[in-house]
């Protein structure tokens, strides 16, 4: 295996078509032909299609109309009780949002139904990323297969049937739901998509959108809490200045990419611009976390949390945490926000900043009686639990 650890090599590798996605090879049963696993023209065709769902105006609508009420609904019970855990709170917020994007109907609208869906997505996430698991991988895969079957029967099949009826009865495509499932169905014949491919693609969006982003929210809140405890600033400034808070979120995203290593497989021999030689049929580990801490790009304090960091031109504040090039994460701006292209546009903050701001506004603090703990079921550095308290009354 060839390991790439510099920012230059990592960014170059992300752009190379000679390197195909390999991160999900161990979970291929659940990830076959899903957009993130496609390569070449099939990937570009699918991405061009789904990119239409991830537009600035769509992000602006989510931030104004959809994300705030989801946050209030999810964290309200925790605020009233005075305590909660950041990880499930964040996952429930992001999963509620991801369900909309994917096009999955939750017809009951009950907490019990959502709990079932949440548990299925958790099993799918663990099985799809089984390469990082520390437990029995065969058992994790088996639980994932069972979760996909249950998801198909209870949620996917009814959602599929409803959208097929809508498509058949609608003459104006603009009146159709703007979600992944509807988009794939409208274009299924042209892309030659089988139903099982559509199933896996629609199942992918809720778990990836909720698990990766929720982890980033918890990392960001941990850094913010440490910053406040050390007396380096005031909570009120972060609440009243969302642009400042977003800098904290982006810096945390840089230090803690959802996947610290991106795996690729070389389809042919190639040389990177730096001179690194990669033979054909070689495993390549793109060290995203290492690249994001490259001192030649991010400065001598690259391993430290510094939200006021000055960045070179062309370098994202979150580094390569959302990938780069053709395989960059479709939802990166929905999670992290988007700078305005001109003075007439609204500064999009992203779902993570919006939730972090609301938690701070409501007085969230680490629970001194229940310390946070890391997740021992994965080799990734991820929080398994992060209890917080809220002022009551």
Instruction: Average the pLDDT over all residues and give the rounded result.
Output: 92
Read across the widest sheet, the strand sequence of neighbours is 1-7-4-2
Instruction: Give the helix/strand class.
Output: alpha+beta
The CATH C-level name is Mainly Alpha
Write the layout of secondary structure elements.
Elements: E1 2-4, H1 7-15, E2 19-21, H2 28-31, H3 40-51, H4 56-81, E3 83-85, H5 86-102, H6 111-128, H7 137-169, H8 180-186, H9 188-191, H10 195-229, H11 235-240, H12 242-255, E4 261-266, E5 270-271, E6 277-278, E7 283-287, H13 288-291, H14 295-298, H15 332-336, H16 351-361, E8 365-366, E9 373-374, E10 383-385, E11 387-389
Parallel strand pairs: 1-7
Antiparallel strand pairs: 2-4, 3-11, 4-7, 5-6, 8-11, 9-10
Tags for this model:
single chain; about 400 residues; alpha+beta; Cytochrome p450; 4-stranded mixed β-sheet; 3-stranded antiparallel β-sheet; 11 strands; globular
């Amino acid at each position: 295996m060839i390991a790439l650890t510099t920012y230059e090599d990592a960014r170059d590798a992300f752009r190379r078509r000679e390197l195909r996605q390999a991160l999900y090879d161990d979970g291929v049963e659940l990830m076959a032909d899903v957009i993130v696993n496609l390569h070449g023209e099939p990937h570009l065709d699918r991405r061009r299609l789904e990119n239409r769902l991830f537009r600035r105006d769509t992000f602006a609508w989510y931030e104004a109309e959809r994300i705030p009420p989801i946050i209030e609904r999810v964290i309200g019970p925790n605020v009233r009780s005075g305590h909660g855990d950041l990880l499930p709170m964040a996952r429930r917020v992001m999963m509620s949002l991801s369900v909309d994007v994917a096009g999955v109907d939750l017809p009951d609208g009950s907490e019990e139904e959502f709990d079932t869906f949440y548990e299925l997505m958790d099993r799918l996430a663990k099985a799809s990323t089984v390469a990082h698991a520390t437990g029995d991988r065969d058992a994790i895969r088996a639980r994932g297969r069972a979760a996909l079957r249950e998801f198909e029967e209870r949620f996917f099949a009814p959602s599929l049937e409803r959208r097929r009826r809508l498509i058949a009865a609608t003459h104006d495509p603009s009146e159709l739901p703007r979600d992944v499932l509807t988009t794939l169905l409208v274009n299924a014949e042209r892309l030659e998509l089988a139903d099982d491919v559509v199933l896996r693609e629609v199942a992918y969006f809720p778990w990836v959108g909720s698990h990766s982003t929720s982890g980033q929210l918890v990392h960001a809140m941990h850094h913010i809490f440490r910053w406040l405890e050390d007396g380096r600033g005031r909570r009120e400034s972060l609440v009243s200045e969302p642009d400042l808070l977003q800098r904290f979120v982006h810096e945390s995203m840089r230090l803690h990419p959802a996947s610290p290593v991106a795996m690729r497989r070389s389809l042919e021999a190639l040389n990177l611009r730096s001179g690194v030689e990669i033979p054909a049929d070689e495993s390549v580990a793109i060290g995203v976390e290492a690249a994001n801490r490259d001192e030649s790009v991010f400065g001598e304090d690259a391993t430290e949390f510094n939200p006021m960091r000055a960045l070179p031109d062309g370098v994202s504040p979150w580094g390569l945490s959302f990938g780069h090039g053709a395989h960059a994460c479709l939802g990166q701006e929905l999670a992290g926000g988007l700078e305005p292209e001109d003075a007439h546009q609204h500064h999009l903050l992203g779902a993570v900043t919006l939730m972090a701001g609301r938690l701070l506004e409501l007085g969230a603090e680490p629970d001194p009686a229940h310390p946070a703990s890391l997740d021992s079921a994965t080799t990734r550095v991820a929080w398994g639990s992060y209890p917080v308290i809220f002022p009551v009354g």
